[in-house]
Design brief:
Length: about 425
């Protein structure tokens, strides 16, 4: 069976070049910066500090000072008794451009802001020779994906490590299942179903006197320039598994979606449900479902049908059955480590050993897959991979500050323009 290091998307060098060895950090103290101090960033910082005993959090950055303070409190509380975390006041940076100052202080950076900012932050980190952990998705539009792909190439040239938070790639149940796929036990995967159906996420009510920019930044999940819709921000996990297991990226997507339940003025401009069929070059067809509708069935999982056997998988659970009904494999998760922790363990091991992990390319291409799905549901048209990759649509403005006007604005009734299939166009 293949090692989880290899099947988890970690591209580990079997023989190190002089450049890679020069990139090895050996036993030196590694300086860590956190850019984006929400819940996921806070968790990632804890995991990074637990991954290596000689890592120090030296700088943090966020658009909001209150997020920085709450994050540092949470990190300290979680690590109480393990280590002391002290970030100097002068190294706590606030604002849209605060990421630069934090990244400049570090050897390793965590990028966990709303994903609309990820291409810019990743580009800066790589250009300045930093190792990176960045959350998915890695962009909200095609222009951002193209930028991440360019930065990924530069990271490879510089032998920089990049781990993307598609943590199923680091989860034992998924890697063990992939071994059976690679060994031919499943046969050719011909179809699949992937799901992220849930009640949805938080809403932060508009506060009197709040600017439109601050409101949208506080409610980033509901605006496409910041989030990209939940088919991208959440459902990318399941879509990425389909790409990974099939070993290809889809050639086209067609589907439908809309707003039926989460359709108030607090829900921005995104849909509350999507259904997409992804068609792959080798003939596989994957049905994709996601929804944000309270009171409905929670369903987050993947299933695949091969010419020899079928797969059912969700989190730590994985089961493979042959077409004769006989069980081939059931994963035993009793000794499994959290994949969220494994991602950081692998990252710091790779840095220490002069090895190279670069997840950025598949992170970008699975991001594009989900964007292609969003384009299909918003327009009601079939969207090809080439159309999605080469789209001229730019959602994220340049040179943002607190006085900037967001790219989408409410009407006189406080409502935002919603995509309409058959009318909405994607250039």
């Amino acid at each position: 069976m293949k090692s989880t290091a290899l099947t988890g998307g970690a591209l580990l060098s079997s023989s190190f070049t002089i450049e890679a060895m020069a990139n090895s950090s050996g036993n030196k103290k590694l300086k860590l910066a956190l850019v984006g101090c929400g819940g996921r960033g806070t968790g990632a910082a804890v995991q990074a500090l637990r991954a290596d005993n000689d890592v120090e959090l030296v700088a943090v950055a966020d658009a909001f000072s209150d997020r920085i303070e709450s994050s540092l409190r949470a990190i300290s509380e979680e690590l109480d008794g393990e280590r002391i975390v002290k970030v100097k006041e002068k190294s706590r940076y606030v604002g849209f451009n605060s990421y630069q100052k934090a990244i400049d202080k570090a050897d390793v950076v965590i990028l966990t802001t709303p994903p609309g900012f990820r291409p810019l932050h990743f580009k800066y980190a790589i250009e300045n020779d930093k190792h990176v952990f960045m959350e998915k998705p890695v962009a909200t539009d095609s222009a951002g994906v193209r930028q991440v792909l360019e930065s990924a190439k530069l990271a490879s040239k510089k032998n920089l490590n990049v781990v993307v938070g598609l943590q199923r790639r680091y989860q034992n149940s998924y890697n063990s299942t992939l071994d059976f796929i690679n060994n031919g036990d499943i046969g050719k995967i011909i179809s699949g179903q992937v799901y992220w159906n849930s009640a949805g996420v938080w809403v932060n009510k508009r506060i009197s006197g709040q600017t439109e920019m601050e409101y949208q930044m506080r409610n980033w999940y509901y605006f496409n320039w910041l989030c990209g819709d939940h088919i991208l921000e959440q459902h990318i996990h399941n879509i990425d598994v389909a790409n990974w297991f099939i070993g290809e990226y889809p050639k086209s997507a067609a589907g439908m979606g809309g707003r039926e339940v989460r359709n108030g003025i607090d829900h921005g401009e995104i849909f509350d449900h999507h259904y997409v069929e992804f068609n792959y070059p080798g003939g596989a067809v994957v049905s994709s479902q996601c929804r944000h509708q309270p009171g409905t069935k929670f369903d987050v999982r993947e299933a695949f049908q091969g010419t020899k056997a079928n797969i059912k998988i969700s989190g730590d659970y994985s089961k493979i059955d042959g077409h004769d009904g006989k069980n081939i494999y059931v994963h035993d998760s009793s000794n499994d480590k959290s994949p969220y922790q494994i991602e950081h363990d692998r990252l710091f091991e790779s840095i220490r050993n002069g090895e190279v992990i670069n997840d950025a390319e598949y992170g970008a291409k699975s991001t594009l897959t989900a964007i292609m799905g969003r384009m299909a549901t918003y327009t009601g048209k079939e969207i090809t991979w080439e159309q999605a990759l080469n789209s001229n649509q730019i959602l994220v403005p340049d040179n943002l500050n607190w006085n900037s006007t967001p790219p989408t604005l409410p009407d006189q009734n406080g409502r935002y323009k919603i995509p309409k299939p058959g009318i909405t166009q994607i250039s």
